Amino acid sequence: MANQLKIGIFLLLLIFTGCNQQSDLSGMFYSFDRVNDRFLQSDVWNKTHSYKNLTVISENYQLLVAADNHIGGLVNLNKMIVEARKPENLAMVFVGDVVSGQKEDYDKLKNVLPDINEVPYFLIVGNHDLYFDGWKTFYEYFGSSSYYFTVQTPQNKDIFICLDSGGGTLGAKQLAWLKNLLSSELSNYRNCIIFTHVNFFRENHTRSTNILETELEVLLPLFAKYQVDMVIMGHNHSRSITDFGNTTYLTMDALKDGVSNASFVKLQVSEDKVGYTFQELN
Amino acid sequence: MTFKTQFQFNFLYKSILVLIWSFFSVQPIFSQVSLNSYAEIGSNAVSEGVYGDFSTQVEGRTGNFSTSVGGLLSFSNARESVLSAFLFTATNDFQLKKNKLSISGFYLWKPLSDIMYETNFGLLGACRTTHFGYKLGLNTRFYNFTKAAILLYNFDETTQTTLWEPTNVMYKISYFRDFSKKLDIEAVVTNFDHYFIQQETNPMILLNLGYKLNSKLKLYSELGYMQAGLLNFHVNAFGVYLRGGMIWQIN
Question: What is the pTM (predicted TM-score) of this model?
Answer without folding.
Answer: 0.90
